Hints:
The chain contains 14 helices and 44 strands. By secondary structure, the protein is an alpha+beta fold. The longest helix has 17 residues, at 376-392. The protein is globular, with a radius of gyration of 28 Å.
Amino acid sequence: MRNTIIFNDNWSFTKENVKESVRLPHTWNAADGQTGPATYYRGQCLYSKKFLRPVTEEGQRVYIEFRGVNSSAVVKVNGQEAVSHDGGYSTFRADITDMLQEENTLEVLVDNAANDRVYPQRADFTFYGGIYRDVYLLTVDPCHFDLDYYGGSGLQITPKLEGKDALVSFKTWAVGGADKVVVSVAGIGETELTLTEEDGKICGIGEIRIENVHRWDGLADPYLYQAEATLYKDGRAVDQVCERFGCREYSFDTEKGFFLNGRSYPLHGVSRHQDRLGVGNALTKEMHEEDMELILSMGANSIRLAHYQHDQYFYDLCDEKGIIAWAEIPYITVHMDGGRENTISQMKELITQNYNHASIICWALSNEITLQGVTDDLMENHRILNDLVHTMDPTRVSAMANLFLLETDSPLVQLPDIRGYNLYYGWYVGDMTDNDTWFDDFHAKYPDTLIGLTEYGADSVITLQSPKPEKGDYTESYQAVYHEHMLEMFSTRPYIWGTYCWNMFEFAAAGRDEAGDPGKNHKGLITFDRKQKKDAYYIYKAWWSDEKFVHLCGSRYHDRVEDVTEIKVYSNLPEVALYVDGVLFGTQQGSHVFKFQVPISGVHKIKATAAVQGGDPQAVYSDEMEIEKVSTPNPSYFASADQVRNWFDPPKADPMDKEGFLSINSTLGEIGATEEGANFLAGLMSQVPGSQSAAKQQNPAMQAMVARQPLKKVLQQGGFKMSEEQLEALNAKLNMIPKA
């Protein structure tokens, strides 16, 4: 029978000729991948390990298994190449039996350098290099369940509900010949599979009926069955694999949204990146568990696992906890003509390795892939992936997350079964209410098309505070106001099949340098280290969670300059009382958000309480904070003037501005209003591949919003790397063009 050995200890790691001892999981970008664009190392590094030949029975094969190596790997044993692999987020294996000696050297050359064939290459997150998930050594009988097909287990389980029962189909693949395959389901029974040959492998097919099936029913009851497949050769059991599965059905309605097991089940989702502060992507199981518990504590019932295949352990947690999961490959931002085969192999790995997870409802083809426009090759790539999804897994739907710039009548929008848009109205462009308008317009124009919101959010640095929050100020205050609006918007549009806040946690984005805290995307509802929940976290808890609570917003906004300050409370209870210095200030009835205007003159103790009406009088929920009236604004509450406009200051003059003339601070609309300025923009955009095609895809409303953006901001947010000298050169040209 097979034996599995964890293989994480006693590795040697070499980067730029400097060697150190490490234990896996490990990434070489745990620090520099989180500090901004200047010191982010992308290149080749070497991992090596000495080991003795494992004890095996006669004829047994030895495999090495990697759960995640980013992003390309070449594995050698005693100098012989065992396998090469492109794709940093999936499991891959190699049979190393014939390369083994009594004493062995295992080498893994890992490369996260830029190239034009392996995804991702351009995206708003750090591409951590390293062997950042577990490694295993497997010993198996010559006759064993297939270990060579795209990292799968060799066992595929397909439940189909039939009224109160479920018909569960099983399919196995084995090599080395086999007499018999028996599949058993704990507490139900067993069946012997019918054996055939398929692509040179022994294929077993069979089914078990489960009467009065216990359904996997989301958060309420995520029941899982345990299946065990046993392989026999010459009458002897030689290999065994175990997989869990859940029996559920789901559907989508263009007016009523998502349904689970026949009932309406609105998807209250968040997106998740796998990294965290000081650790990078080399997470422990305990860290995965903490992430899951934090997501559940907010009341979310769905997770978009962006923008790549996540750790198998986290998919297991989704199954166990009843989370509805969106799974995707890292085909993102910019299409590469030389990357087609890599998208296909990554999709095959994603589906093969995750097919049995009850939590997963869709396989997503790409994310924001149209930044540089829609080409024939891009369309063909998506058609191939869409067909592949339906061929490999007819039981689930294909999906896409579209860039907000993509015109809604693009053929790409209608290609998958379901689609979402990533909209950032109220942050990068436009106003919060533009989200409402966009969805109303889309649903009116395409009433039979399923539409979701796959990304939305606003950045906030937790130390930044404001009594007058506004778009672009990076304050915790504005982020909370933004999410208040979005939740209200969702509540009146049940046709939106799912919403996914971007993002549950702050994450590393090595190309970012914003608000005095470089190297991070700050849209998380919880800080990068998972230690602090932002106010916006609690507005979601107020809408989504059944756990009773009351939360005072602005607890980090201690020093206040206003004479009358707003005290805002979030709660999922219907009445809130506010106390100032121990004296009842007032009570309010309502839902989710409660606001009090409180005069302040010194240091004040603020307390909010709420109780369940008609419930236990002792069950009172409360939150407390201290605030102080000050005469001078606390400088720690705002970023420097060149990063974010301070809420109490008028806009300061930029030395690049020249009165009466254009500058890089001029909006695209201002620049395009003159013939010379329009020619300048056309010349600039012609240097960006696909930009003219992307511009043509924008609808009039989007064009108007983009026209309101300053050129400098458009360049920064578009990810275009420009030195100060290049920006100054652009500005000098614009300073020669008079304003209209």
